[in-house]
Structure formats: C-alpha cells, structure tokens
Design a protein that fits this description.
Elements (H helix, E strand, L loop, with lengths): L2 H21 L5 H7 L5 H13 L3 E5 L13 E5 L1 H7 L3 E4 L8 E10 L4 E2 L6 E5 L10 E6 L13 E6 L8 E7 L2 E10 L2 E5 L8 E3 L3 E13 L1
Parallel strand pairs: 3-13, 4-7
Antiparallel strand pairs: 1-2, 4-6, 5-10, 7-8, 8-13, 9-10, 9-13, 10-11, 11-12
Helix pairs in contact: 2-3
C-alpha cells in the first residue's frame, strides 16, 4: 500500500467518525467519495473493503426482527475500537452521564502503563459504556497509571476497556501478567523464543520475558470528563 493510499484510508476513517459523531449516522458512499476526492463509488468500495480486512471497519445491521431476516436488512459502517485507537479518538463520558450506554462495566483495579504494578481487584466503581465496546457485556475496565502508552493515545488516568482472553496476536495491546502478582499494559510481540512487551513511548525500553500470562486484550479507551 502506498503512502497516498494509507493517507486516503485514514481520511475515510476520520470522515466516517466525524459524520457519525455529528449526525448519529455514517455517511453514504457518495458522501465519502466527495469528501476524500475519489472519482467513483467503486473506488470507495475498494478502500472500505480493505479497511474491513484490516480490522478498522465493520458493517452492522441497522434493524431486523431476527437472524433469518437479516439478509434483507440494510447495513451501516461502524469504526472498530482498533480504528478509534489508531485515530486517537477517546470515548469521552461525563462522570454523571449514562446517555447512550448499553452496559455498565466494573472498574476492577489499576494497570501500569510503565513498569509492572501489583494486581488487585476493587469493584467499588462502575462506568457506563457504549454497547459497541462490549456487545456481550463481558468486558471490564482498568484505570491507567503511567505514561508508557501515550503514543497509542492512552494516558495516565484513562480507563481501558479489556476483553478477557488468554491469547494474543503480535501487535495487540494486552494486559500481561509478568510476575506472580504484577501486571502491565503493553503491545505484545512473540519473537525468537521470547515475549517482547513494547511500550508506546520512546522514553521507555521494551520489556522481555520468557513467557507471560495474557489476561485480556484492549478493545477501547475511555477518558472520563469531570
């Protein structure tokens, strides 16, 4: 993919995000073509298909009585959490607001975006989140401490939405247990018989381990407004 194509794909994502935020609905294919200077709708479809393959877009059914009728239902474009993270978009939720939330998720503790910190669980706080981040309601939140992931747009005090799972692909941002009772938030890479946990801040060196225990994968970032 050329640099020009990469920039155009980013512009498409930004336009979809901005239009959805302003109107509540994603733009039409023709709107996208005009916004990013594409001459044909077929060219837009080509870019959208590539963005779907890369995990930045998904198509969701707008309505439908049941699965048997879905084939006839219209589908809308929606940015995935991976796209939101790539674009540096946070889901900003006012402290007292529950508008538009489909799930209330527990804040189960803190996670280090720096060196590992001791793991603990304290479910004394909950935060409402949009259903797109946890359609099954099985995710949980961790409060971020530290600045080692700032280039992934994760800053001190943010909440990260974590989907429990025990496996990860290279490049995933994960909750990794690196010692008996210590966890950290880093980008995961398996290489040459060891694990590299890579910060997203040039001031921090990568961390290397023979093995780590994956506890979950990042699927969203929330910045709470006071």
């Amino acid at each position: 993919m050329t640099k020009h194509d990469a920039e155009r794909k980013r512009r498409i994502l930004e336009y979809i995000a901005a239009t959805t935020r302003e109107t509540g609905f994603p733009p039409s294919i023709r709107d996208i073509a005009r916004a990013v200077d594409l001459a044909s709708t077929s060219a837009v479809h080509h870019h959208l298909q590539a963005l779907e393959r890369d995990g930045y877009l998904e198509r969701v059914y707008l309505d439908g009585p049941d699965a048997a009728h879905r084939a006839a239902q219209p589908r809308a474009l929606r940015l995935t959490p991976a796209a939101a993270i790539m674009l540096g978009l946070q889901l900003e939720i006012a402290q007292s607001s529950t508008a538009g939330a489909s799930h209330v998720l527990p804040v189960v503790g803190e996670i280090a975006a720096g060196g590992p910190i001791e793991a603990y669980q304290d479910v004394s706080e909950t935060v409402p989140v949009p259903g797109m981040l946890s359609p099954d309601g099985d995710a949980y939140l961790l409060r971020v401490r530290g600045d080692s992931m700032i280039e992934a747009h994760i800053t001190d005090g943010d909440y990260v939405v974590i989907r429990p799972q025990q496996t990860a692909r290279n490049g995933d941002i994960v909750v990794a247990q690196v010692e008996e009772n210590a966890v950290t938030l880093k980008r995961f890479f398996r290489e040459q018989g060891r694990i590299r946990l890579q910060p997203a801040n040039p001031d921090y060196p990568p961390q290397f381990y023979d093995e780590v225990r994956i506890q979950g994968k990042l699927i969203g970032v929330i910045r709470r407004l006071d």
